[in-house]
Write a structure and sequence with these properties.
The protein has 233 residues and is mainly α. The chain contains ten helices and four strands; from the N terminus they run H-H-E-E-H-H-H-H-H-E-E-H-H-H.
Length: 233
Amino acid sequence: MSKTQDFSSIGDVLKALKEEFPDVSISKIRFLETEGLIEPERTASGYRKFSPNDIARLRFILRLQRDQFLPLKVIRKRLEQFDPSELEPSPNGESDEKATQEDPEWTASSGLSLSFDELVSSSGLDELQIRELEEFGLIDSHTAGDDIYYDEDDLVMARIARDFGKYGIEPRHLKMYRAFADREAGLFEQVVVPRGKTEGGRAVIQSLTELGKLSKRLRDVLLRASLREHLGN
């Protein structure tokens, strides 16, 4: 058997990924290559050829984007410790626990800084949709001197809004989450953060993280019960 049989064309890679990642495209794969996250070999005529490790690496990247909404800057760091042998196939679209699952912690963001155009291209939304998210207080630009930028939380929010949009749920429908989050943050700050102290230590972060997990569990239970009631089950 020739060595070339161990490699796949970009079209073959697209077909292999489509079942788990319906939104993946050739332009997306090329973009990840441009960003230096994958480095497929080239034939003498310039065509890309992907090894099994290249495809595993792509799966790892796409799962981190889909399941954790991680920006490329963070994914690039994760790839430094990536071992293709640890990534199991996920035909049902469920992420490999070892590769992608981690408990969230209410700590500072990764320091990601995006321009408006970069936020548009990275989120999968158009300019009008990003402006709508700003209008309803779901994302907010930041300033550093004369520069205006968006951070990791803004990118995560934009991608969540994109996925809600697939079900016809628009930014104006999501503003209730913003209002609830603000009230919840006020409550948590009142019971956890020491009076007169705006920056807590490790104990404060741990308490906020635990409250965040409890809050998520509570919302899940209440939503499940409400849906059963509405559906008559």
